[in-house]
Amino acid sequence: MAAVIKTEGLSKHYGSQKAVDNLTFEVNEGEIFGFLGPNGAGKTTSLLMLLGLTEPTGGKAQVLGFDPVREPLKVKKKVGYLPEHVGFYDDLTARENLQYVAGLNGLSPKEAATRVEAALIKVGLFEESNKLAGAYSRGMRQRLGIAELLVKEPKLVFLDEPTLGLDPDGINKMLELIVSLSKEQGISVLLSSHLLHQVQRICNRVGIMIQGRLVATGTIGDLAKQKLGDGRDQFTLEEIYMRYFQET
Description:
By secondary structure, this protein is of the alpha/beta class.
């Protein structure tokens, strides 16, 4: 299986502070990879380096075969990014916001209309598409953010805390949508979150990041065996994480 993300010793230092320290990992094509850790662990800084939005202090990375430092525009063309706080033009409708994004990506009016409509249907906002984005709830804005990514038809998406602040129904809808991106759209997903029970629910593999360092990667089952032993049939990702956190 091909790697869509590959890093080796990727680091970002601010003076003596090591925001990201020697990050080495891979994300495989088609999988949902959970990037775990508390706020301040270095997850967002890592995403920004992979997107070419901040330059690393050391190490190297490849994203879909491109170097984010030397080829940031090629990375951005193929990768979608949903930040923790999604921004839209609140005085435009949801549909108008997506049409604007389509124009920025160089789509013809006909292709833009096709992709915008498909994206709105996919995220469940077609009936609300003519409402001003400023009137959208947080959950609707998050789904509109996913629609914006889909307009680009990305091969890979980075989602930074996509369920933060959502109510239980909004969380379920977002998690189901993320799973469908992988299974139905064939999009690889790097999900950055500190909400461990949600990550356990949908991710194929995870990486645990603590104080700027990636301390473990693997399937949740494999990490459970390593830290909890073979005799446990039931476990939570929180239990596994706390073992690593205590040791670190």
